[in-house]
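Module 6 notes. Inverse folding takes a fixed backbone as the condition and produces residue identities as the prediction. Think of it as a translation problem where the source language is geometry and the target language is the twenty amino acids. Below is one complete input and output pair. Work through it position by position during the lab.
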């Protein structure tokens, strides 16, 4: 009996190891690298970065993707600056592809860590609940693809939040990764294109306009994609009301 209790305790503690590692890495990263992940650091080191890229292109791509993924995985400051850096170093394409791949890898890492610690247990509790909570859980389960794409497309949903919510709802990793990769694509392309023009911005001594995504010519197409993501949900509701 005692051995079983001890084994269960160890198993419970083991589930929190990934989350503890993420938390420790985040605290250490903020302390050690917080000053190096800002726009000013990019402006000051731009010439060195370009020289290293020109001399070691493949190594630069590998290092960039790895650092960007770690920034996302540990929720460090600088994800937007990293996206701009991808455009600055590699142009809009393939820079956007590198940015999207790195962000997806980092998001998947924190998704797995959170799900290992909390997701499965919380999902089981929600599944066994009754009333409104159970209805909400069932609604999300029926429309997972639409909701996953929606929280990625809407510019006001923090990236960190969009990583946590699916983990709490026991969303499959493949579904999470695919919706992340394609869902962040519009915003990533916009910011990567801004980064591709940083050379001229630096030359003028200015800072990039990060509010560009909220300009009508950018925001309206993204909202159109949000409407498409919600279309299956609307069709299900309509069919339910008609008894189809």
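Target side of the pair, the amino acids:
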């Amino acid at each position: 009996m005692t051995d079983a209790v001890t084994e269960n305790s160890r198993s419970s503690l083991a589930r929190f190891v990934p989350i503890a590692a993420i938390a420790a890495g985040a605290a250490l990263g903020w302390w050690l690298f917080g000053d190096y992940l800002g726009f000013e650091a990019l402006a000051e080191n731009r010439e060195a970065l370009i020289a290293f890229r020109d001399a070691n292109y493949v190594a630069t791509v590998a290092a960039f993707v790895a650092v960007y993924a770690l920034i996302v995985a540990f929720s460090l400051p600088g994800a937007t600056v990293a996206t701009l850096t991808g455009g600055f170093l590699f142009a809009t394409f393939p820079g956007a592809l590198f940015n999207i791949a790195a962000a997806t890898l980092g998001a998947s890492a924190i998704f797995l860590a959170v799900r290992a610690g909390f997701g499965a247990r919380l999902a089981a509790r929600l599944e066994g609940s009754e009333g409104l909570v159970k209805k909400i859980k069932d609604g999300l389960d029926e429309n997972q693809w639409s909701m996953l794409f929606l929280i990625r497309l809407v510019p006001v949903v923090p990236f960190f939040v969009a990583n946590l919510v699916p983990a709490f709802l026991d969303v499959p990793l493949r579904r999470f990764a695919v919706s992340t990769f394609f869902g962040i694509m519009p915003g990533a392309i916009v910011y990567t294109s801004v980064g591709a023009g940083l050379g001229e911005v630096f030359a003028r001594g200015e800072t990039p306009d990060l509010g560009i995504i909220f300009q009508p010519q950018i925001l309206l197409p993204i909202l159109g994609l949000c409407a498409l993501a919600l279309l299956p949900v609307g069709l299900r509701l309509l069919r339910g009301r008609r008894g189809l």
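Reference fact for the lab report: Residues 2-242 form one domain.
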